[in-house]
Design brief:
heterodimer, A: about 325 residues, alpha/beta, Rossmann fold, Helicase, Ruva Protein, domain 3, 5-stranded parallel β-sheet, two-stranded antiparallel ribbon, 15 helices, 12 strands, about 50% helix, about 15% strand, globular, B: about 325 residues, alpha+beta, Immunoglobulin-like, Four Helix Bundle (Hemerythrin (Met), subunit A), 6-stranded antiparallel β-sheet, 3-stranded mixed β-sheet, 7 helices, about 20% strand
């Protein structure tokens, strides 16, 4: 049996270096019951240096998950509750006057952390959202005349409440596009809910998360994730999926044309590739297979496809459209 | 004497009465003549409309005509003037006053187009014209009915008629036709259902060579291409799996071209008919994935084994499905 030496070696390295994933999952499972899907998507974001937008009703352990992840990775955690009166300076920081030294000093905002939970991001006005999203994109912030690099790893987990739309400022399409994944968090199943009750009501000792990996190791793993091999056929598969969202009629999906106002941007293709690599890494593989693409396609694409009024009137969701695309595009 | 004086008195009274009546008669004649003469030579005014009933918004043409005006003695000093809105009427257009000279006399006429947007019975006021000799002439006011809808074409109301007893008539022909048609339809449906049931229960017979011949032929053709010898492993495995997928799709009536390997394996589970063949085929699929997506280069033995396993898979799935269908 022969393999291209680079991939064989990469496979072995990944199998060795991705062992922490299982430890991390087990550690998080101590405090978070169920929500494996959300945990995996957070890990994909963490490994591929992409931010995650979470959508789900309150009480689904979103905050707990990211807080636990920060503890397990030994990173600094910040939580910003977005409110209508929040100012950009409240997020990135500002200059304050130090009376004793008789000078202005920089007071860094909560964004200077490894893991940021931007809770209910759509409650703050556009200027605050822009400040955060700009920092997410640039990985640096400017306070007064100085530019400060943000710490690595830097993962923003933003949440949106899908139930309440009163007094909210929905994120514009261009800004939503900056999130690598949009994960829809669902309720736990019956068995999981039973375990949650037992854990919260019966157990006197609240489990804590121990440090499993350092932020330095995460950064090294990111390097390895980028090296995961992606064949040309897989690249073509990604391109076909994204192009089908833009020009559905070219892929025999003419009925979808009137449902889509805009398709996935080039960021969709980039993030689909990156997330697939991270998913392959998590599955201890040194190469991407079509299953990886299918597994993360919805999370990468759902916030990057614009629906028309016609689609909304017919209760067609982006998930339905992505399913149709995946059903139509031939798997390599 | 007294009698005479009385007669004289009577006579004188008579003669006095006669004088008064003559004066009266004369004055009547004079007045009559004056009236006639003044009537003959004075100005005349008339106001007419083209219709006295309109629907809301319809237009009326009001024509004011003043004739026999002597410009030298009594010309028109003030013309009849209507405001733009008056008494539920709206003036749409005022045409200019037309002057017509005829044998020393002049006639003036003006047309005014007006309408009304209120239903009811409204009056156009009397047209009034003043002349330079201080005289005035006045036409009669005009009444106009403004109706909300056109009722001119509606028929008159009639009284209710007495109730007439109608004898029920049974159309036996129609009832008979419908019944016959229903019976025929029911019989047809019955036979159709029976036919479909029989058709369903009747096992399908498949040709022994259905699909397998083509699949095996394609495999032979692939082998003859010598892709392994040419180090085109990726192409070899791509075509190999393509043939297998096509064949299994045909045999199992599935569509696997949009399925990933895992999804395809789920579709095939327990449908190949032989556990060891299934395991070997699944291993082949994994191997093909590694060759296609991870630059994996299998050895010659592995390739030969893969080819043999493919043939076994094709034969096994065919035999199993054939046995199942027949």
């Amino acid at each position: 049996m022969q393999t291209a030496p680079d991939i064989q070696e990469l496979n072995q390295r990944i199998q060795f270096n991705s062992q922490f994933i299982d430890r991390l999952r087990n550690e998080l499972a101590k405090v978070i019951i169920g929500q494996q899907y959300m945990v995996d998507r957070l890990l994909i974001g963490l490994l591929s240096n992409g931010h995650v937008l979470l959508e789900g009703v309150p009480g689904l352990a979103k905050t707990l998950t990211i807080k636990s992840l920060a503890q397990a990775v030994d990173g600094k955690f910040s939580r910003i509750q977005f409110t209508p009166d929040l100012l950009p300076a409240d997020v990135i920081g500002t200059m304050i006057y130090n009376q004793s030294k008789n000078e202005f000093i920089v007071r860094r905002g909560p964004i200077f952390a490894n893991f940021i939970l931007a809770d209910e991001i759509n409650r703050a006005p556009a200027k605050v959202q822009s400040a955060l999203l700009e920092a997410m994109q640039e990985k640096q912030v400017t306070i007064s005349e100085h530019t400060y690099k943000l710490v690595e790893p830097f993962l923003v987990l933003a949440t949106q409440n899908p139930l309440e739309q009163e007094g909210t400022y929905p994120l514009p399409e261009a800004q939503v596009d900056r999130f690598m994944l949009k994960v829809v968090v669902d309720y736990p199943n019956k068995k999981e809910e039973q375990l949650i009750i037992r854990q919260q009501v019966q157990d006197f000792v609240v489990p804590t998360v121990s440090k499993v990996i350092t932020t330095k190791e995460i950064i090294e793993s990111r390097e390895l994730v980028r090296q995961v091999y992606m064949d040309e056929k897989i690249e073509q598969y990604i391109i076909d999926i994204v192009f089908a969202s833009r020009f559905p009629e070219q892929y025999g999906l003419s009925k979808m044309k009137s449902m889509i106002s805009y398709g996935g941007s080039p960021r969709a293709s980039i993030n689909l590739a990156l997330a697939a690599k991270a998913y392959a890494f998590m599955n201890k593989r040194g190469y991407v297979i079509p299953d990886d693409i299918k597994a993360i396609a919805k999370d990468v694409m759902r916030h990057r496809i614009g629906l028309t009024y016609e689609a909304e009137a017919e209760n067609v969701t982006t998930e339905i459209l992505i399913d149709d695309i995946l059903r139509t595009i031939q798997v390599p | 004497m007294i009698k005479m004086s009385q007669e004289t008195k009577v006579k004188s009274q008579k003669s006095r009465f006669d004088g008064v009546s003559v004066i009266r008669h004369l004055s009547s004649v004079f007045l009559f003549c004056f009236c006639i003469s003044s009537n003959l030579f004075s100005q005349k005014i008339s106001a007419t409309v083209d219709r006295d009933k309109i629907l809301i918004g319809e237009q009326i043409e009001l024509k004011i005509l003043v004739t026999d005006v002597d410009k030298n003695t009594a010309d028109v000093s003030q013309w009849f003037n209507l405001p733009d809105t008056f008494n539920h009427f709206e003036i749409i257009k005022r045409l200019p006053v037309d002057t017509i000279s005829n044998e020393g006399f002049v006639s003036y006429s003006q047309k005014i187009i007006l309408t009304s947007f209120d239903s009811g019975y409204w009056q156009i006021p009397a047209a009034n014209v003043s002349f330079s000799d201080k005289k005035t002439a006045q036409a009669m006011p005009i009444n106009i009915s403004v109706l909300p809808v056109d009722v001119s074409n509606l028929k008159d109301y009639h009284d209710f008629k007495e109730i007439i007893e109608v004898k029920a008539q049974t159309n036996w022909l129609l009832i008979g036709s419908i019944t016959a048609a229903a019976i025929v339809l029911a019989v047809l449906i019955f036979f159709l259902i029976r036919y479909l049931k029989r058709r369903k229960s009747k096992p399908k017979t498949f040709s022994k060579t259905f699909g397998i011949k083509e699949a095996l032929q394609q495999l032979d053709e692939l082998q003859q291409k010598d892709l392994i010898q040419k180090n085109q492993h990726k192409l070899f495995f791509t075509e190999l799996i393509f043939i297998c997928r096509n064949f299994s799709d045909q045999q199992l009536n599935i569509f696997s071209s949009n399925k990933t390997t895992d999804e395809y394996m789920l579709l095939l589970k327990n449908k190949i008919g032989n556990e060891p063949t299934q395991i070997k085929y699944f291993q082949l699929l994994r191997l093909a994935d590694a060759v296609k997506f991870a630059k994996f280069i299998p050895s010659k033995t592995e390739c030969d084994e893969a080819f043999a396993n493919t043939k076994t898979f094709v034969q096994t799935i065919y035999d199993f499905q054939f046995a199942k269908k027949n």
